[in-house]
Amino acid sequence: MSFLRNILKPSILKSKTHFPFPSSSSTLYNSLFSASHHYSTSADAGNTKMYAGLEPTKPNEKPRVVVLGSGWAGCRLIKEIDTKIYDIVCVSPRNHMVFTPLLASTCVGTLEFRSVAEPIGRIQPAINREPGSYYFLANCTSVDTDDHVVHCQTVTDGAQSLDPWKFKISYDKLVVASGAEASTFGIHGVHEHAIFLREVHHAQEIRRKLLLNLMLSDIPGVSEEEKKRLLHCVVVGGGPTGVEFSGELSDFIMKDVRQRYSHVKDYIHVTLIEANEILSSFDDRLRHYAAKQLTKSGVRLVRGIVKDVQPDKIILSDGSEVPYGLLVWSTGVGPSPFVKKLELEKSPGGRIGVDDWLRIPSVQDMYAIGDCAGFLESTGKPVLPALAQVAERQGKYLAKFLNRIGKAGGGHANNALDVDMGKPFVYRHLGSMATIGRYKALVDLRQSKDAKGLSLKGFPSWFIWRSAYLTRVISWRNRFYVAINWLTTLLFGRDISRI
């Protein structure tokens, strides 16, 4: 078994060089992993572990763009980059992009999980077929900006899997698009007891927990008090994600739970806790309409600040207690530990500071886009909101920027100093949308909170919301999945199987 583990462990990387294994396994290993001249390995003195990596590109080779992250910003850049000019290497702990506006719908069975996940290889086919382009299931642990090298560690599935494997990648251009993490504001117990709603596995856990509590509450001998707790779903955060999930959940309760769990239908409730106003970025008229519709759907709106989270209850700042069976945390995002660790100048709020062209001005050939990036104060521009449309447009802009540099001969490391930068990045807000359940939604097309503009509500907005997001889903494959899921839900109800 130890021989097999040694054979499998470095299988994410290929090499033409010699490996410090015993003679019999060395021959086999070299024959298995010799496909790419870019790879190299070096022995660790005193044991048989290796530290492998992608070597620097040569002048006669295509320059290499390394992208850290597979969110809206990173995947848009990967899609738009010219693969005739660059090789692409994507490093991310997930091998897909999540279509986050529809993620809440998967929690209650309106959509299936694969409908909102787009594999990176489909977004940019060159990663599957080009010899110098790769995707690595890993996290970046550090960046050596002087030597143009990123240090990475593979992502594993726990104690029963292979040990994490470290490797390094030389880059010509580095794009940090690693996103942000959910903000907990230092509140005790959030990480231990709440579920965030940012990834597919979060939605899977919410769905699993919700259906488990429904079935447990139906077991003979469970007290009424315990039934009320198990079936009390609490959402913290009144932004678009929290409101949309609350709306989807109330729809699920009214249309599916009341029919299929008739014994406990009167015990299940939804509470939405927000410190200020829900949907604070929307027009006042739309905000009040959303609050009214959510209340009519059975969602209890509570204005309060969470002070502590315990295994079965939330304690608010006024001392009141809110028992729960399912707790979903959706209070915005902040810088990730990786971003905090980078020794780079930061923008207000702790994001990586960038200039007007999304470059990190203190180092060469390094850029930042998406939720992890913000304009430096010296630019005179505000830090943009953590929205998918911001990240997507930054990715598209930077891809065009890098393509222009590459065509001008500045694609290799330290070779773009005299290339025309072109126009700086300018963001124009296209508006906001949010569904609130019961075939109703909000569409706010104002440029800013204080600007004038068109705002819609009700069924027409819901139709616009669904139409807009269906066209924004990246592939025709997933558009088909989403459309079919919506149709089957309409005709037959939601899938409530606990798998």
TrEMBL record:
Spans traversing the lipid bilayer: none
UniProt GO MF annotations: NADH dehydrogenase (quinone) (non-electrogenic) activity; oxidoreductase activity
InterPro entries membership: FAD/NAD-bd_sf, FAD/NAD-binding_dom, NDH-2, NDH2-like_C
Keyword NAD on entry: yes
Catalyzed reactions: a quinone + NADH + H(+) = a quinol + NAD(+); a ubiquinone + NADH + H(+) = a ubiquinol + NAD(+)
Keywords: FAD, Flavoprotein, Membrane, Mitochondrion, Mitochondrion inner membrane, NAD, NADP, Oxidoreductase, Peroxisome, Transit peptide
Membrane topology: Peripheral membrane protein
Cofactor(s) annotated in UniProt: FAD
Compartment(s) of residence: Mitochondrion inner membrane; Peroxisome
Protein's job: Alternative NADH-ubiquinone oxidoreductase which catalyzes the oxidation of mitochondrial NADH does not translocate protons across the inner mitochondrial membrane.
Family: Belongs to the NADH dehydrogenase family.
Protein's name in the database: NADH:ubiquinone reductase (non-electrogenic)
Originating gene: LOC110777418
